[in-house]
Design a protein that fits this description.
The protein contains 7 helices and 3 strands. By secondary structure, it is an alpha+beta fold.
Amino acid sequence: MIIDTISKNSITRELSIAKIAAIVSPFVKGGLSDRSVHRALRRRGYKPVKPTKKPGLIEANKITRLKWCLDYEHWTLDDWKKVIWSNETSVTWGGQRGRIRVWRMSSKSYNYHCICRWWKGFKEFMFWGCFLWYGKGPCYIWYNETVAEKAEAKKWLEEANKKLEPEMKLAWELETAMRRMNITRRLGDTKLVWRWHKATGKLERTASYGGIDWYRYYKVILELKLILFAQRLEANLQLGKKILV
């Protein structure tokens, strides 16, 4: 009865020992104490822990994910062998990550087992890697962007935006003209003026502090790692090879 009580929904999962005992006691001869409830839960492997956190999914997210599953529902193992999986994670070198807590008295702050040590040369960086059925692919360690790399990025963005602006401006003018033709209310005397910024398609960087943004991912991972690896893999598979060289 105790397990059934707490397993009904997310609200009952948060019930205290006292509330669980109050709910179950009327059905037990002689009643049920808080301590008995606690012992019963512990014997069955239940313990109070923080809830697992996951991002909430709106209806559009659910529909998109369901469509993805249905689209690839009939893929065979040979189909999945052609997929390259990639991800990245932060790495701490010379220290410990996350929230750390130790049990001690106030007078034992410098006890050998109550000290969290850090070392000279402590570093944090991002690691990117990929793999597929046949083995591991290339990997990369992200470090902070240098001054020279920032200057190169700035030059690349200026050249790219110089080529992109005429195309985006023409598209904006056509879209604006079509929208004005279908307007039923009075426009007034305000004239729409073209402005070249992020909202109209201008390429801009967001990680100005030297972190990872779309530009660094595109230039370092896609151009130099992932695309070349996929092309080499496809050529090998066409030749009947299953080696990643």
